[in-house]
Amino acid sequence: MLYSRLIILLLPHFFQFCSANDAETFKPSTPIICSKNSQCPEEWPCCSPYGECGSGPTCIGGCDPRYSYDEDSCVPLPVLVYPFNAAFHHNFIPNKFQITSNGRYSMENEFTNKLNAKKGTVTGSNLEAMMHHKGFIHHSKYLITKSDREAKEMLYDYNFLYSGNTNIDDESGEILLTMPKYSTGSLIASTHEFLYGKVTVTLKSARSQGVITAIVLMSQVGDEIDFEILGSERYDAQTNWYYQTELDYTKMQKQPISSDSYENYHTYGFDWNEERIIWLIDNRPMRTLFKRDTWDPITGKYKYPQTPARLEIAVWPGGDKDNHPGTIEWAGGLIDWENSPDILEHGQFFAKVKEIHIEPKQNRHFNEIYNCITRKTMQRRFDITELLKTTCGYDHDIEPQFGEDSLEWHCDYIPRVRSLRDSGSSTRSSRGSRLLKKHRPFQFQLGESQSIANDGLSVNVTRLEAIKNDKKRILDFSKIPLPKETDNDSNNHANNFSQSNNLYKRNMNFTDTTQLSGSAKTTLKQWNHIQILIIPLITHILL
């Protein structure tokens, strides 16, 4: 009896110990650095965006194929393809929490927030549940499964990853990127990459010397476009870009912000296409980079960001005492972890994220994706949600390696890693429908005959923008209501094609309408009519 009671008392500590160790099993106890001079070993095959080797989640979240163990280590990542969008809106908070993914979260249907000592934040499993409900999943759980079905659910349930000290403001519904004393901050990132598009992020930045708020488009191979706001310089945003991790700090330019970025919301945006990048603040163009101006005569190529990227938003300690002196100087000096205003008032530094919108643009690879889907489905008409299964990796046999011409697209591969200790090699055999390799890679050349329209867009892209607007008018999914929506203009962005999660689940059961309500059957019928209208339109335009 005594032993039984002792076991009962020790079990919670045992599970806590196991959980803590599971969380670290995808990283070696001593960090292994990966770079152009050192690839990852077979035991820890995947190179993270931060230059450290690992497994499991490291093979999914921005895995760098250049310095990983082999070409199959990194999992081909899901790509958000036009016309689908991804969005977060702080007002999207239903009254009830509903479990939609195999009951992974053992929560009551009636969801009640529990507040911790820091006013207005959510704790424990309630935080995980609320993040789940808003389309966020912890990076260590995303696509880590032995089941294709569960991986497919994750693809359509989650738009964003979170890590570090990410939290939710219980009153406003905003995402809080917090940084408690002596911590490394927090990060959210899009689950899907995209190749060219428009991104906007509305937030209040963090404040105080040495505290950095970053909004970044980052590709697996180091193409980067960013804003960084220093906590001690809140009336300016630093804009920068990099080509495949080639560091050139002379490219940084400061852009003015109209008011204190900590006290007031501002919208930071990137408008990125094949020919130019525009940085925007509060919808005003602040800086433009043209691809034609990035030509490098020594290497004979354009050093322009041109590979699929994901959105990352972070608060991090640029002024931490362990950083390089140059970093500390750039960040405005050392962080005062004891006496800074937000440490004294709230116990942490924080940025508040109000809205996120990611809207991919058309690109020249759409024909390849379309052809892959039609080969797979054996018909020219297909369910438009098939585009949501698009993934992308790199063909190591095509030169130049790790550029846009070496992209390898998949149309029915479900990306996943079987466990925290596996890599993309564990699901290599399921990559059945790769697109045919290009025998003659398309070389993008910007010639004199390629005129630029007055609005800064190429004629071709302008036409595609018109197509996009027409499709938006036809495929107006904002008519499908979200729970507890409010009637204001700011909610228009939260609808649109970000409803693809719900649409996919409806399309999964097209053949079985016996369980559908009358309204659902009506919606299903409308969606079928929409497909009949839109697919011939797409086919006509493309062909």
UniProtKB/TrEMBL annotation:
A GO term from the CC aspect: fungal-type cell wall
InterPro entries: Beta-glucanase-like, ConA-like_dom_sf, Glycosyl_Hydrlase_16
GH16 domain: residues covered: 86-346
Endpoints of the signal sequence: 1-20
Pfam families, alphabetized: Glyco_hydro_16
Domain of life, source organism: Eukaryota
The protein's name in its UniProt record: CRH- protein
Taxonomic placement: Eukaryota, Fungi, Dikarya, Ascomycota, Saccharomycotina
